Amino acid sequence: MVKMASTEEQDRKIVLEFCHLLEKSKQLFNGLRDLPQYGHRQWQAYFGRTFDVYTKLWKFQQQHRLVLDSKYGLKRWQIGEIASKIGQLYYHYYLRTSETNYLNEAYSFYAAIRGRAYYSRAIKEDRPDLMVKKLRYYARFIVVCLLLKKMKLVRELVIELERQIQEYTTTVPHDLRYEPEDQLEWSLVLEEIKGFIKAESAVAVLHADTNPIVLSHRLSPLTTPPCERTPHMTLSLQEILIVGSACEQAKFSELTMDMFRMLQTLEREPTDAMHPMIGHPMAHGGPHDASPAASRMPYGVPGSKGYVENGDRRTMRDNPHKYLLYKPSLSQLMVFLSSGFKELPPGGALLLYMSADGCFSTTKHPQDYGYELGGLATSVKRDAVDGGLSVRGKSSAGYKEPHCLYPGDLYPYTRRPLFIIIDSDNSFVFQHIPRYFGQPLVILMSPQDIPANYQGEYLQHHGSLFTLFLHSPMTAMCYICNVGDVPIHHWERCQSYVDRFVTEASRLVTRCRMDEIEQGIGYIDSSYVQFFGDDFLRTLILRFVFCDVALRLHRGFRGRHQRPRCEPPLPGPELLEHPSLAHIVLQLATALDVRGHFVEGPEGD
Whose CA is closest to 36, among 298, 343, 429? Predict the structure, then answer.
């Protein structure tokens, strides 16, 4: 009897400890939404405590599963909910650190939930909120798989999500649903996902059996452009703002297509070898499940190696830190821009990428290029009224549009090295930003117009052509030549021409700089040289050159507003109009069997 009483007391303590850890984990998780979304130091310690509690909770339920099953009545969906929260932690840590390895960690937990069917009996629990949690889990898992380019799995998950939505809306009575309008809302979510997947595959690369291949366009050692480094290449990209405000563009989970492409362009390919995690996704499983292990603390979290207590930037960072802003207000945009500016370390550069609709000026004789040429819309509330001024309507009493980012708004940030990419139908107004403070400044601007045969809802919905060139020059080349699918062996052959172009363009940039030093001829602005030592910025500059040369040679893009611009201007004869670059583009066109889309010679104009 004494032994039985002792066992019962021990079991009771186990249940109490589990309840304590569960409640503590929920409190910490719910507190994450109150943390500031900007800055580096304000949230790291809190994330560390949250990871620590979930680590203990996960290991505890594994070690005491039999007791918790019998005495607490632990259900599989409850285990799944813990795993889902850990997956969300890793995903949000990825968003805050830009380290792509955390996506793999989030994927491990989400995949285990599906593989172990933790939510399989959710519909039988007679709890509508539990079914909604299951649907939200599917939506989050799809986002992670999209970012990891696991497109086959994405399509499987979409089918499962559609079935789960149907089951929820037909099985759960209307008056008992978590939200009465759930059916419509989840149907819209489903349509968003399907539209995004369709838009993402601009060009299909096919196996020999005609099945599509998914290619990654993140930076890797094989795709990093070569560079003959000089002492003047002093800057590294440290802070990024990616802003998506374009209307009518495919989006999912507050990621527009342009944002989705650009964030991958500015990340390195995740590799486990770079930052091995402690343990393995299926380690530490108890007798019931070989479940993923939350017992590994992610690198860079307080308490683990690689985290610097004084808030300095970790030397082991693979990717620049970035903020993702979907249709922000002007005040939000300025706050995040100021935060990135503040966090720049010595020798660091800030990149602002904006994909947005133009906000046009009606001033006939502009004198102030900072505010009288218009800018980029940061709000889509076309009929709202803010402070007595119309938003996106006719300005009243001569006032300017308040929900608009003007070139003049960026002047204060030119105190530090600044790299700007503007993708808009009003992009050229940003070419007049002055260098008051003598710091490196480069502005890459999209074409303001495209030929009539490329216009319409399709291109507007599927993302910008300019961003596509910066993301995957080969895909963009196929798109402007109406090539819808390419066999993989042919793709690789054609990609070799793009690689040759990038190598040659990199050589020409370096040669321009050397000629300038030796002959005193100002071929290329020093800003480009200072940015050129960074792998990401060099890639963007060289892909911009490819875009300019390809569109200059293309028969369809004849107007000057149909080609990109940059400030400071890149040299023409020495780079943009160099015969060797034109020759490679025309060779690529021949290999693609689209030579007829391009002019007869390399002159282009």
Answer: 343
